[in-house]
Amino acid sequence: MISSKLFVQGEGMAIADDVSVRNAIIKTLKYFHVFRHPLYAREIYSFLQIGISQEVLQHMLDEMVREESIFYAHNMYSLENSSQIFLKRLMGADLAAEKMKEAHRCAAVIGAFPFVKAIFVSGSLSKGYADERSDIDFFIVTEQKRLWIGRTLLHLFKKLTFLVNKQHSFCMNYFIDESKLQLEEKNIFTATELCTLIPVYGSDMHRQLIDNNKSWLETHFPNMELSVSRVVPSSARKPIKKRVEWIFNRMWPERLNIFLMKLTDKMWRMKWERKNYPMEDYDLAMKTKWYVSKHHPLNYQKKVLKVNNEESYQTVALGI
Question: Which of 91, 69, 89, 88 is nearest to 79 (CA)?
Fold first, then answer.
């Protein structure tokens, strides 16, 4: 055992003792345990909230497994000693690979709509897991001051997908304006979601998105590799898309954009009240600003952060 030993890290890393490392490992596994999602050592390293070497991490993981404070199977670690939780992820990885093929096809459709600049897969699929009930969630970047026009057209289209039972393949839950790529909410939940986004459309926007958020992401995940090397299809506009955009750009687009935002917000608030959800949670779960649209009625952010004892889940970026 290495009790009270100090681990001196490399340049830019803090000094961590064994208690800090243990607590950080438990905290990371606890976060994903909310979803019953065991982690590989490389994932624990990436999502660890203190800067340490991989050698130190592996040494501590081995010791904690021997002590049975965490459990190991199929090269994964979990807080729960259950074979089912490990097998569930292995099976989910196979299905996720198939769903990613469908996600690429869906992204090609979404990308054909006006004012869509980039598309990313989010949610459980971006973590390499899916089951038969999993949605395909998308995080979408739109052209400046056209977010609500693009979003409205896409959600009118989504209503048609119910006719062919494809509504779960087009879950477009988060839109941001290309001029506001830095997220307002800077917490462990948004950091995790942002770092796991998988770009499927828009050749350069992923790099811009990461660069705009890199400074605060590094404070949460000092070991995370944030370099961007993935090649994705270009967002070059097709003739029909360009023509439709040309038409909307001559219809007082900024006024229309704000009108659609206010209309959507009004409808969401009415639905929220009808379901007797607490109104103090509305602005966190259903964000409606000219540069962002978030539609998360189940409010997983609040649930996850509450479990992880992070009370400041509504932290907002200074100056925004």
Answer: 69
- pLDDT at 285 (0 to 100): 77
Q: Following DSSP, what letter does each residue of 77-99 receive, concatenated?
A: EESS--HHHHHHHHHHHHHHHHH
CA 134/CA 281 separation, integer angstroms:
25
Q: What is the pTM of this model?
A: 0.86
Any idea where the domains of the chain sit in the sequence? 6-81, 96-307
Query: Pick the residue with more confidence: 80 or 272?
Result: 80
Q: How far is CA 249 from the centre of its chain?
A: 31
Q: How far apart are CA 185 and CA 72, in angstroms?
A: 33
Contact 191, 139 (CB under 8 A): no
Q: Which fold has domain 6-81?
A: Arc Repressor Mutant, subunit A (1.10.10)
Query: For the segment 97-150, what is each residue's pLDDT rounded down to a tens digit?
Result: 999 999 999 999 999 999 999 999 999 999 999 988 889 999 999 999 999 999
Strands of the chain (E only): list them: 6-7, 16-17, 39-40, 71-73, 76-78, 116-122, 137-142, 171-177, 198-201, 288-289, 292-294
